[in-house]
Each structure stands twice: as C-alpha cells, then as structure tokens.
Amino acid sequence: MTRVLLAVLIVATVASAIGVIYARHRHRLLFVELSRLERDRDELNIEFGRLQLEQATVAESNRIDQIARTRLGMKFPEAADVVVVRP
C-alpha cells in the first residue's frame, strides 16, 4: 500500500512540476508579446502626434491662402468684380 501511495505522490509531484514549467514558459511568451505590443503602441502614439501636428499645419488658414494664391493662381475679387444678387 505504501508503494502505491509513494508512486501516486511521485506522479503528482512530476505532474505539478510540469505544470509549473508550462505556466512559466507561457508567462514568458505572453510577457514578450506584451512588450512588443507596448512598443508598437508607443510608436503609433508618436506617429499620431506627428500626424496631428502636420494636420494642424496643413489646415492653417494662412497656408491654405498661400497655396491657393501660388498653385492655383487664385486671388480675392476686386470690389468692381463683386456682384450682389438680391431676391
């Protein structure tokens, strides 16, 4: 009876050790993935900040006015060119 109990305890100990090893290995894999995802998040946050700054620069009214004048040849109409249409 003692040999059976001893065998069961040894099997349980080995199974427990294998479970601990598997859990630690899984933890390491998940930690590596978490680190990669955090790094990706940080890079995306930096890029998002850059894009927000670029959008603010592009949407600035002076810049739009400058592009309209230089690239498109647009200008404000003279007072004589303005026609008011009344209903």
Which key phrases capture this entry?
single chain; mainly alpha; 77% helix; rod-shaped
Describe this entry's structure for a reader.
By secondary structure, the protein is mainly α. The chain has one domain (2-72). The protein contains 2 helices and no strands. The protein has helices at 2-58, 61-70. The protein is rod-shaped. The termini are far apart. The model has no long low-confidence stretch (mean pLDDT 92). Pfam families: FtsL.
Give the radius of gyration.
Answer: 35 Å
Shape: rod-shaped
Give me the number of helical elements.
Answer: 2
Strand element count:
0
Strand proportion, as a percent range, falls in: under 5%
Instruction: List the domain count as a whole number.
Output: 1
What's the N-to-C terminus distance?
Answer: 109 Å
Helix/sheet category: mainly alpha
Query: How confident overall, as mean pLDDT?
Result: 92
Q: What proportion of the residues is helical, as a percent range?
A: over 70%
Flag low-confidence runs.
none
